[in-house]
Design brief:
Helices cover about 30% and strands about 20% of the residues. It has 7 helices and 7 strands. The protein has a 7-stranded mixed beta sheet with strand order 3-2-1-4-5-7-6, with helices on both faces. Strand 6 and strand 7 form a beta hairpin. Helix 6 (about 140-145) packs parallel to helix 7. The longest helix has 13 residues, at about 170-180. The chain starts with about 30 loop residues before the first helix and ends with a strand.
């Protein structure tokens, strides 16, 4: 993994992020990408809920070449609330699917479907890191958060994207309700990443 800079500047927080060797856009900042990689053990397993063109997953997979990253997506059209994304080619779900296949590294795999469908087919798989960035309405986010602990290794981390982003206020509401009602704490934030750990008993 590359060493992060000694100090961050605004360039590390700009969106969207593009890479010359990858197709499509990353809607995580460079700072957030570093954080995701840092929460994934070198030989750990990460589940990404909502992958789009898979740029974020490909970057984390590059930082952690000995880890395994499973992405899932239903590849629906991009939400119209996100005008920046709709204005780009990767608003098209077929385009994003093709981009994901082109961007994928050897340590990545893809499941097309929902988190509930994945859990039913893979009930015994457990992950060190679960990154939730799928549907952005309250119900979708909250339901994904409720399912995530059953797929999480002991001591693992749940990270939800777009927390405290005013465009996606329902994400913030879902995270806040989750940590209020479930035995998880919001331990820190990095950019718009909400980082959650199981509460110590």
């Amino acid at each position: 993994m590359q060493t992060p800079p000694d100090s961050w500047d605004d360039a590390y927080d700009k969106l969207p992020v593009t890479y010359s060797h990858l197709k499509g856009l990353a809607w995580t900042t460079v700072r957030e990408q570093y954080a995701l990689a840092n929460f994934l053990p070198k030989q750990g397993m990460m589940l990404e809920v909502g992958t789009a063109s898979g740029v974020t997953a490909a970057i984390v997979a590059t930082y952690r070449p000995d880890a395994r990253i499973v992405s899932l997506d239903i590849f629906e059209p991009a939400a119209h609330a996100d005008e920046d994304r709709v204005s780009h080619d990767d608003a098209d779900p077929l385009k994003r699917f093709g981009n994901w296949a082109d961007n994928a590294r050897k340590n990545q795999s893809l499941f097309v479907g929902t988190l509930m469908q994945f859990r039913r087919l893979q009930p015994v798989v457990r992950f060190d890191l679960i990154f939730i960035d799928g549907g952005h309405n309250f119900e979708s986010v909250y339901n994904d958060l409720l399912l995530a602990p059953s797929l999480l290794k002991e001591g693992g981390t749940i990270i939800c994207h777009d927390y405290n982003d005013p465009t996606w206020f329902q994400v913030t509401d879902a995270v806040n309700q989750f940590v209020q009602e479930q035995p998880f704490d919001l331990v820190s934030t990095v950019g718009s990443l909400a980082i959650m750990k199981a509460r110590s008993i």
